[in-house]
């Protein structure tokens, strides 16, 4: 084995290390993606979090924002899922409660998890929820229906160009994996 | 170096140094010879082109008329998915690796690839990978049908074939990474004395950069598909929204691999064309250095444009703008390349043998694919083009008359060196004209049907698209049949029937590969050759490095 060949094999191993590092980088992209979404507030990553009700005291009565509600059931499940109102008008800073209703129309018990999202993207970090059925997974007996209140407040810092905010929920069937989906940071002042 | 010499003598008894190849099938299984492996890669690639081509004919036959003709929608979707996977990972990539195996050592004056056993392993993984992948066609739930991009949650609905898909991707990844490592090490360590980096043939340059792209991105794809596997079978939630994951994240990770991948498929083609055009224009390549820098720029840009594949996911405006402008920026180094090819031909003493015809067709038709790419880069209009036949037309223009034409050109150009026999120029020209016309008949109408709103990956379509689709289907069948002329022509060379090739083969060809006899002996450049500007095809005066 000549000297240049030995150098070649060393070079090959070094490139192999790059391959391993890039494989790890692929997995690191997951947390990185989460972090970017959190910092920028895009992609609904924040809307599953419990907000501190006491933090916002100022009500901005000069603005009236339309909040629309969208409800979806994932994977062709026959469940009934709707918001009591399809939209509501609120002032930023005004604490509002909206009831959502879901009925499990199947003949079996299920556990469902709602995943929230907020549009437009720049409104997402200004939508604070103090109570939401999306914070935990929701068990439903066969045929059971539940009213589920969502308490939210829009931050007065909501960008001026936003006059309509859409809050959407998608219910997923998690009966088989049933575990809390969204990790809940414990925020002081949280009341259920 | 007495020690090394002794070691060398000791090894002498074991390997087949200085001998011809072994006899029989074991020659091919055990071979570590770059020429044998190059041949194996190319034969494998062309077998896969055949399989993937048959799948495309199923698609085109089904699209002859609206409504369902021959296959059900589920099988149709399996065909579109498998056609892409087979053509990309089984056809184009192994074909370029095969060309690299044959030509890179001969071009840099090395006796073999730097890591010959890794090379053998890299090739022999491939038949297993594609056995896994193709076997899914016969399984419960059929082959993967969610598109080659494997977006979750759709891909998670694949039946029993799902783990086979994932492990096939893993194996293809390992194979191309080993090939890439071999190219990098060979090019950087085994160049003949006097061949500085900026005297290296452009095919080696483009392959070197391609190899880095492969090393950087194939492991990311392997990671992404591993996450799919654990999401489906081990309860993780990387891409499962109900578990806190995000399916859109898969798209980001996939295209972080996927966009460099499209340059993996085209950069070696640039190298081939940059080799062939000077040979038949009988002029040195115009702007050699700018070609190298343009290639490197394209490779760099390829890492920061990935989200232009997903303009419609609901990105913030700033994201749309960034990815739009960075994508358009790629047109600049690509334009440099096209300009240089044309400038190379300018006032050259051109002749139009088959490799040159394919190379010129490449420049012309690849540019059309580039222009439709620019149209797709415009984020606001991409909302209309997204997932239509316009996209299909775009990437088939850059892949078929782009990558595939360059592979065909390369085979015509170098097969006299490989086999020692000239191919039939007459049948080469027949093959060229049939291919060049049929490829346009196939894909050009797809621009129109796509702009008018015909969706991709759907077996049915609105009646107003019938004419365009029938033209397209006729073109596809003619193109497929025309390739048998090529296969026949190449088999004729391999059977050593035909006019004997000279050592030089082409009057204007330059490079170390033309300094060895035709056919190239089993072992070449056991001793490093001497190089000078004349041999390498650089202008011998007025230019200093």
How does this structure look, described?
The complex is a heterodimer of chains A (192) and B (545). Chain A has a domain at 42-173: Sandwich (Ctag/Cox11 (Pfam 04442)), CATH 2.60.370. Chain A has 1 helix and 9 strands. In chain A, the strands form 2 sheets. A 5-stranded mixed beta sheet of chain A has the order 3-1-9-5-7, with no helix packed on it. Chain A is of the alpha+beta class. Chain B is an all-alpha fold. Chain B has a single domain, classed as Cytochrome c oxidase-like, subunit I domain (Cytochrome C Oxidase, Chain A), CATH 1.20.210. Chain B is built from 18 helices and no strands. In chain B, helix 4 packs antiparallel against helix 5. Chain B is globular and about 65 Å long. Classes of the chains: A alpha+beta (192), B mainly alpha (545). The A-B interface holds A 1-5, 7-9, 11-12, 15-16, 18-27, 29-30, 33, 37, 40, 42-43, 48, 74, 113, 115, 119, 121-122, 170, 172-174, 177, 179, 181-183 and B 1, 4, 7-8, 11, 114-115, 118, 177, 180-182, 184-186, 188-190, 215-224, 227, 235, 237-238, 241-244, 246, 248-249, 252-253, 256, 314, 316.
Q: Tell me the count of domains of chain B.
A: 1
What is the H level of CATH, i.e. the homologous superfamily of chain B? Cytochrome c oxidase-like, subunit I domain
- Write down how many β-strands of chain B occur, each being a DSSP E stretch of 2 or more residues: 0
Order of helices and strands of chain A: HEEEEEEEEE
Separation of the first and last Cα atoms of chain A: 73 Å
CATH class of chain B: Mainly Alpha
User: Poorly predicted ranges of chain B (pLDDT <50, ≥5 residues)?
Assistant: 1-16
Which chains make the largest contact? A-B, 45 and 44 residues
The gross shape of chain A turns out to be: flat
Determine the number of helices of chain B (DSSP H or I, runs of at least 4 residues). Answer: 18
Percentage of residues in strands of chain B: under 5%
SSE class of chain A: alpha+beta
> pLDDT average of chain B, as an integer?
92
What percentage of amino acids of chain A are in beta strands?
25-35%
CATH topology group of the domain at 42-173 in chain A: Ctag/Cox11 (Pfam 04442)
Main structural class of chain B: mainly alpha
Tell me about the biggest sheet of chain A? Answer: 5 strands, mixed
CATH superfamily of the domain at 42-173 in chain A: Ctag/Cox11
Task: Kindly provide the name of the CATH class of the domain at 42-173 in chain A.
Answer: Mainly Beta
**Strand tally of chain A:** 9
Radius of gyration of chain B: 23 Å
